[in-house]
Amino acid sequence: MKNHLWSLLSVLLVASCGPQDQPKETSTSFEQTWWKEGILYQIYPQSFKDTDGDGFGDFQGIIEKLDYIESLGITMVWMNPFFESPLVDNGYDVADYRAVLPRYGTMDDFQQMLDGFHQRGIKFVLDVVVNHSSIDHEWFKQSRSSRDNPYRDYYHWWPAENGEPPYRHSLFDPEGAWEYDSLSNAYYLHTFAEEQPDLNWENPKLRQEVYDIMKFWAEKGVDGFRMDAFQFASKDTTWPEFPEGHEKDFIKWYGMRPQLHEYLKEMYHEVLEKYDVFAVAEGAGSTFEDAHKLVDADRQELQMAYHFESVDMSRTPDGYELADFKEVFTKWDSAFAENGWIAIFLSNHDNARLVNRFGNPDPEFRTPSTQMLNTFLLSMRGTPFTYYGDEIGMTNMDMPKIEEYVDVEAKGKYKAALAAGEDMERFMEILNYSSRENGRTPMQWDDSENAGFTTGTPWKRVNENYLEINVAAQEKDPNSILNHFRKMAQVRNENPVLVYGNYELLQKDHPTVYAFTRTLEEEKMLVLLNFSEENSSITLDEIGDLDQIVINNYPDLDTSEGSITLLPYQAAIVKIN
Ligand code: NOJ
C-alpha cells in the first residue's frame, strides 16, 4: 500500500451534491436500458397502506404514499398480485386475470395509481401468475366439469381408471401434487396448493390466452412483467416415474424443460417486443447455462432473472458464512459479466426480513447493519430489488406458535414435518426465523395505532416495534436507515459505474469485510462493507488513490496506519483515482 494514498482522502459526501453530478456518458459492453439502470421497490399491496378501514391495504393507500415512494429514489415498482382471487395464497391464486380484487379498489383506482407512478417517472411491474390459476378461475370450473369440455386441456389431468398417477411433489401440499376430483373421476396437478391447479402450457390456446392477458395490461401502460414460478410452466408430460428423493433437486425435475424456451420465445414475439416492456423470471434454473438461456439478449426470451442462491443461504437461525455470501454473489457476477442480466435481492415477500437474515436486528446494530446491506444491494451489478419496509429496517415478528400462521406454505410445511416425525421444537424455531410471514407485516408508517397502516383491524398483526421503527421517526433523523437508503439510491442513480461497471472482489478470504471495486472506463469505486459487530481492518495494496467518500454510514472512515478500519457494520464507498 502506498501511504500517500490515504492523505488524499477527502470526506466529501457526493450523495448530497447538486446537479453537477449528472450521469456521465459511458461506454459499456452492455446495451444500456432503463430496466438495467433502475432501482426496483417491491410493494406487497395487502400490507402497504389501508384507506378504507378494512385492515387490508388498497390502491388509494398506495396513491396516498406516491410521494413517499418517489422520495426513496427508486425508479421501478413491482407489486404483488392484486387480481380477483380467493386469497388462498394471498393472490397467487388468480380467479380472473383481468379484474382487480375489490378490496384493493376499482380498475379506475388502479389506473389512477399507475398514472401516479408514471407522472413521477416510476415504471410499474406486474406480477404474472400463469404457472397455475385458482380453482375459482372460470377456465378451471369449465375444465373440471367434464372430460370433453373445451377447457379440459387448459390443465393437466390424469384419468383415475389409469390407476394412481406417478408421484409428484408439491411445494405446499404434503400429500403431493395430484388431487383427485370426483366430478370427472380424474386427478389434476398442482405444484403449489391444491387450490392452485397448474395450467397446461402445451396447449397453444392457453398460451394465447396468457399473451392476451399480458397485452391487456401492457395496453393499460404497465412497463414490465414478473413471471411467477415460470420455470415450472413446462413439464415432462410423458409422466415418467421419478426416482426416490428427486424432489430435493426440484428445479431439475419439475422445471426448465426444453419447451420452456419455445414458449418464452413465442411470448417475446407476441408480447414483449411489441411494447417497451421487460420481463423478469422468478428463478434462473439450476445452472448458469439455464440462466443464460433465459436472459441473454440474443435469445429473445426474457430480459432478467433472479436466482435463489443468496436467500437460500440463510434459512435457519444458525446464520450464514460471509465467505459463502461473497462466493455466491461473485460467481453470479462473473457468469453475467459479458452477457445477460440478473436482479440482485436479499429479501422479498417469500422471505423473512433482510436485517434478521443477513444483518443484526439488535437495537444497537440494526441501523448500521441495515444501512450496510442496502449499500451492498445498491452497489452491485444487476438491478437491485428492494422490499418495502427494508428501507426503514423493519424486522421479523416473533411468532412461536403455529396457530398464528395464516400462510399456506407455513401450514403445509408444518403438516409435513409432523408427518415426518421431525423435532417440532426445532421446526418452530426455524419457521419463526425464516417464515415468509415475517416479511408481510403491515408497513410501519408512524407511532399511531397500528403503525398508521389502518384505522381498522389489520389483516396481519403489526410488529410491536413500530413505536420505535417507523417512517415518521426516520424522516426526522438525517442518519436514519431511511435517509441512508435515499442517499444510496441517489448515488446509484448518478453513477453509471455502479450499474454497468466491472466488479472485482478484493481480499476474498477476509473473514468480516466484503470489499470490491466497480470500474467503468476511468471511473473506479471501492465498496467497503463490514459484516461484523466488531471493528475490522483491511489492508488493500495497489488499489489506487482513495479520493472522495461517496457515501458512508458513519461520520468518518479511519484510514490511518496504512489500513482501513471499519466500525461495526460500517459501509462506505470511495472513489479511486
Ligand atoms: C412464487 C411466489 O413468489 C409465492 O409467493 C407464491 O406462493 C408461489 N410462487 C406460488 O404462486
> How large is the count of helical segments?
18
The total tally of domains equals: 3
Low-pLDDT stretches are 1-25
CATH secondary-structure class of the largest domain: Alpha Beta
What share of the residues lie within helices?
25-40%
Reading side by side through the largest sheet, how are the strands ordered?
Answer: 11-10-9-5-2-1-13-12
Task: Name the average pLDDT.
Answer: 94
Q: How is the main sheet built?
A: 8 strands, parallel
CATH architecture of the largest domain: Alpha-Beta Barrel
CATH fold type of the largest domain = TIM Barrel
Approximate strand percentage: 15-25%
Structural class: alpha/beta
For CATH, the homologous superfamily of the largest domain is named as Glycosidases
Small-molecule binders here are: 1-deoxynojirimycin
Inertia-based shape = globular
Calculate Rg over CA atoms. 24 Å
Protein name: Alpha-glucosidase
Family: Belongs to the glycosyl hydrolase 13 family.
InterPro entries: GH, GH13_cat_dom, Glyco_hydro_b, O16G_dom_2, SusG-like_C
Keywords: Glycosidase, Hydrolase
Task: Describe what you observe in this structure.
This is Alpha-glucosidase. Residues 42-440 form the Glycosyl hydrolase family 13 catalytic domain. InterPro entries: GH, GH13_cat_dom, Glyco_hydro_b, O16G_dom_2, SusG-like_C. The chain has helices at 4-7, 34-37, 59-64, 66-71, 107-119, 138-145, 204-220, 250-254, 259-270, 288-295, 322-335, 354-358, 363-377, 408-419, 424-434, 471-475, 481-494, 496-500, and strands at 40-43, 76-79, 83-84, 96-100, 123-128, 157-159, 178-181, 186-189, 224-227, 278-282, 304-306, 343-344, 383-387, 502-506, 513-520, 523-530, 536-538, 546-552, 564-566, 571-576. The protein is α/β, with parallel strands linked by helices. It has three domains: 12-21 and 498-576, Immunoglobulin-like (Sandwich), CATH 2.60.40; 34-134 and 204-489, Glycosidases (TIM Barrel); 138-189, Oligo-1,6-glucosidase, Domain 2 (Oligo-1,6-glucosidase, domain 2), CATH 3.90.400. An eight-stranded parallel β-sheet has the order 11-10-9-5-2-1-13-12. Strands 14-15-16-20-18 form a five-stranded antiparallel β-sheet. A three-stranded antiparallel β-sheet has the order 6-8-7, with no helix packed on it. Helix 13 runs parallel beside helix 17 and helix 14 (408-419) packs antiparallel against helix 15. The protein binds 1-deoxynojirimycin. 1-deoxynojirimycin binds at residues 89, 92, 129, 192, 228-229, 282, 349-350.
